[in-house]
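Please predict the structure of the following assembly.
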Amino acid sequence: MDYKIYIAERISLDGVSKEEIAQTICVPPDTTMGDYALPCFKFAKIMRKSPALIAETIAAAFEKDEVIKSVMPVNGYVNFKVARGGLAQATLRRIKEEGEKYGASELGKGKTICIDYSSVNIAKPFHIGHLSTTALGGALYRIFKFLGYHTVGINHLGDYGTQFGKLISAYKHWGNDEEIEKGGIHAINALYVRFNKEATEEMEQEAREYFRLIESGDKEANELFEWFKRITLSYVEKIYDRLHIKFDSYAGERFYTDKMQPVVDELQAKGLLQESQGAKIVDLEPYGMAPCLILRSDGASLYATRDLAAAIYRKNTYDFDKCLYVVAYQQNLHFKQVFKVLELMGKEWAKDLVHVAYGMVSLEDGAMSTRQGNVVLLEDVLSRCVEKAAKVLEEKNPDLENKAEVAEKVGVGAVLFGALYNNKIKDITFSYEKALNFDGETSVYVQYTCARAYSLLAKGGKGELPENYEPNEQEFDLIKSLAEFPETVRAAAEKYEPSLISRFCVDTAQKFNKFYFDCKILQAESEEARAFRLCLTEATLTILKNAFTLLGIGIPEKM
RNA sequence: GCGCCGUUAGCUCAAUUGGAUAGAGCGUUGGUCUACGGAACCAAAGGCUAGGGAUUCGAGUUCCUUACGGCGCACCA
């Protein structure tokens, strides 16, 4: 039941709709004030009465029932207290019934959403700079799926550009097949780094020529390129497996090679293409933006050209209702330009394209650079976190059976959770000290809370929910938190902000721990209290599992 | 120079989108240790929400402005 609507329907105000009342109802900062509140200030103007008077009138006219137990006007607010037993019953029953579906909905039924995320570069190792888009995109993918959308995860591979010409040139000069087969991506990347350090002018020339050869379909150049691509993909797929990330398409930039000319033609036909300084552009001056470059003066396509082709292809292929680009805010202008050009082309669906921008990751000693080799590799961060988890596990719980498996869940979870805990727009300075901290507001805290819950349920069994039980403060506080989960999931989707879910988890775990310390569960004061608390424990566990599944993090039963 | 974003406790971050006394974690100090799992819990200290103006019943949140920081601004992706 939605209490806000329930309350709103029992209030009538001249000139104010029930919907507006329901929307205005909020949750007071302190539970002692009430469970819900209606601030009356904005009605004062319409009704030409003071907020305090309106609040008093509403309170006086409100008929209390078995759901709303008390109604109090306080300084222009009307505070409502609900019957706790009823709310507890309804919430716990629903969680029990819906189980792993609790929080899901059919909101997106029949709708398709494309999510472009992670988008790795061929021949470049996966560093922590790629973590945000991967973790965010993966979480959004699951969140939208949970809300009933048909989701399409797209890894828009960075597999196009002169850099691959450089790579082939470097390979020709210094490459060694055996080393590459053994060293994989790192051996390839070493070649690329070396090229950027040591390449002569002739080699640069040669690199451009190799790139041209790839483009024109030259057999050897393409075989080399495909080899590098295979090595890269088998490397990143291992990482994706550990992070529980999946894609439905690996159509990268190269995929659009033959799909750009029609876009250029269409731009031309629609009179949008202009010549400027030898290049072809779409002028965006009227919209306060720099021009969007479509073709270089040598006729070659650009980043924007491929993104235009990709957007059109995705619309034609998936007929999406929304298409997200989970890309760092560095690209703000780029996407504004691309979206605007599509709008000018008359694509009414351009409004459905969303750049989900997030903050940058830097190291304590400055920015990362693949070319200079100044990077922190994700695989290293993962292995160090898992190692640390294993070490702590060895101390705390040496008899645990599946230690390696648990350490993996704890360690990898901590890395993912760290990437999903703050507002996505914030910049991050990576440090091992922070990454390896398992105390406080972390996934480990939540996992530990779950381990406690599992342990309680193993000892106490799963009870039947008692009919007439009046929850105490701690119990009720926790239940209200649990009841908010569906709304939290929806908000996370609406704002493209998985951190709302991470925050929810920590908050709920804190409330559970408070409940755990203040209330005896297995030796409760009555049979009813014991049964109720076990149900509450089970419900909390259900929700934390659902939430962590959305984030892509596992929860061990023991740790 | 222009545009976008950011600035909240010593540090890292929240704040239900304009609502009541701005909350957590880390760190610090003190407490809980015969326990349903101490990777935990409780308490204390710590704030002119970067500065200034405006809007209104009410601003961390909206608008203007200044400062500081990040990012971007034509043939890279």
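The first helix of chain A runs from residue 3 to 8. Residues 112 and 506 of chain A are 31 Å apart (CA to CA).
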